[in-house]
Specification:
Layout (H helix, E strand, L loop, with lengths): L5 E12 L3 E2 L5 E9 L3 E8 L9 E8 L9 E4 L14 E5 L2 H8 L3 E2 L2 H6 L4 E4 L1 E10 L25 E9 L8 E4 L3 H9 L7 H6 L5 E9 L7 E10 L14
Parallel strand pairs: 4-6, 8-9
Antiparallel strand pairs: 1-3, 1-5, 2-3, 3-4, 5-6, 5-7, 9-13, 10-11, 11-12, 13-14
Length: 254
């Protein structure tokens, strides 16, 4: 229930989280993306790193519109600034999607092409890559000031703390653009690999896709608030395949 600007989402299925970033006031936050059967795709920002918003958790959370973000999928948790230290207490985990149910859940949510999302002014959605090439680019906004622990390890995997920018060039399963999409990858897991395995950054692709034969790979993509035609890969979904399941692509939003 809600009044348009405030809402309690009691069926939010968390699909992914992007890498942490440091806000202007010093808070380190994560962007969370998910799907609510009642409300469609949902973006939550800011959220705490230690929140119970792990992938495939089903949560209930009170939200309100973010005045700085006009995208219809975008919300923030009520009290996100004033009650930041206790913000995770507002989130209730009410369930979890079982491994064998995940593909059936997301299959009807997948759009044929990123351009479908763009043309329908949808800022968040799922696409299936028919082909892909992952690589690194130099990060132009690289911040060399690392936040370290006492033992010399990076404390938080803020993407700006790394000179490498993970990217993927791909075609969607029903691509309409006639050329490859080339997008930045924001997947938190990629940056956690960087943090935990310094000097072995290039092995992250094997870590992500070594079991691809038994998994369905989907990209959770989202656009930029100030550049609505530019999309990035918020998270990479690797969903186990089961023998009695078939994947089909359709656009759930008309």
């Amino acid at each position: 229930m809600g009044n348009g600007n405030r809402l309690v989402i009691d069926d939010l299925i968390v699909l992914g989280r992007s890498s942490p970033d440091t806000m202007q006031d010093g808070r380190v936050s994560v962007c969370v993306a998910g799907f609510s059967p009642k409300n469609g795709f949902i973006r939550l920002y800011p959220t705490r790193l230690d929140s119970p918003l792990g992938a495939w958790n089903v949560v209930s959370v009170p939200v309100e519109r973010n005045k700085q973000d006009a995208r219809r999928e975008s919300w923030k948790i009520e009290g996100s600034k004033q009650e930041w230290d206790r913000l995770s207490d507002r989130i209730e985990v009410v369930g979890r999607v079982r491994r064998q149910d995940r593909l059936k859940l997301v299959s009807p949510l997948v759009s044929g092409c990123v351009y479908n999302l763009r043309d329908e002014k949808i800022s968040l959605g799922l696409v299936k890559p028919a082909s892909k090439r992952c690589y690194f680019a130099d990060r132009e906004d690289y911040d060399t000031t690392f936040q370290m622990t006492l033992f010399g390890r990076v404390l938080a995997s803020d993407k700006h703390k790394y000179g490498l920018q993970p990217r993927v060039e791909y075609r969607c399963s029903q691509c309409e653009c006639g050329q490859n999409h080339d997008q930045q990858i924001l997947e938190w897991g990629v940056y956690e690999w960087f943090r935990k395995n310094p000097g072995e950054e290039d092995k992250v692709w094997d870590n992500l896709f070594s079991r691809e034969a038994s998994q369905e790979i989907l990209f959770l993509v989202g656009n930029m608030a100030r550049h609505p035609n530019s999309y990035m890969v918020v998270s990479i979904l690797r969903i186990p395949k089961f023998s009695n399941q078939r994947f089909s692509t359709s656009n759930p939003i008309s």
